[in-house]
């Protein structure tokens, strides 16, 4: 049975969600706004009124099989998160933020249903979107801010800190966990001092980030940046998907370079 639940008021504004199987569900909550491509996003603005949080937001542009666009609901405006909250609770609940995998080129928080995990673990489950592929981890030398996807994730964690108490969550008990690229992202936040205030524990379900090839930003030409800034998202993703070199399975456990906040 699914019925409309009460309005939740946060620092950002109000939301109306659904309840199903003993869990309150809030979908498609905007946590960030992108002003310019390849630039850090800002926290979502406050609005007056109530937002319908009963449907997922768009997923970030990504590659599907054979390098083709995957879904019709892809958009560059994709910084949304989803929240599952046990309906009955008499104290603040621990919070679990899931960072999806997908090789930093595909995936979405929308693909994961947190209903059962929220109910069985009696904790709040949050899944997030973050920018992917060429819109996120872009190595051209005159792009001053790189690793945009990790900054998106950090912004989502900041939103959680600011607002999760309104959903009954304990902001001092926030765990981040992820698999594949999500696991690598967890390691990135472990090594980013600016992320430390936004979580209290981690679960790493895959290895950390590492570099397989010695190709650096200085080896790339600067001219393409001017042209591709003007291109639409779908035109950018029409570029053939790069070939992937097969490597040693154990390379997933290789050492990786230290990450600092200087990439901001």
Keywords:
264 residues; 5 helices; two-stranded antiparallel ribbon; 17% helix; Rossmann fold; 11 strands; alpha/beta; 24% strand; single chain; nine-stranded mixed sheet
CATH homologous group name? Alpha/Beta hydrolase fold, catalytic domain
Tell me, briefly, the overall form: globular
Q: And the CATH topology? A: Rossmann fold
- Gross CATH architecture: 3-Layer(aba) Sandwich
Uncertain regions spanning at least 5 consecutive residues? 212-222, 243-264
Secondary structure layout:
Layout: E1 2-9, E2 14-20, E3 23-30, E4 32-33, E5 42-43, E6 50-52, E7 80-86, E8 93-99, H1 115-121, E9 124-128, H2 148-163, E10 169-178, H3 181-190, E11 201-204, H4 223-230, H5 233-236
Parallel strand pairs: 2-6, 8-9, 8-10, 10-11
Antiparallel strand pairs: 1-2, 2-3, 3-7, 4-5, 7-9
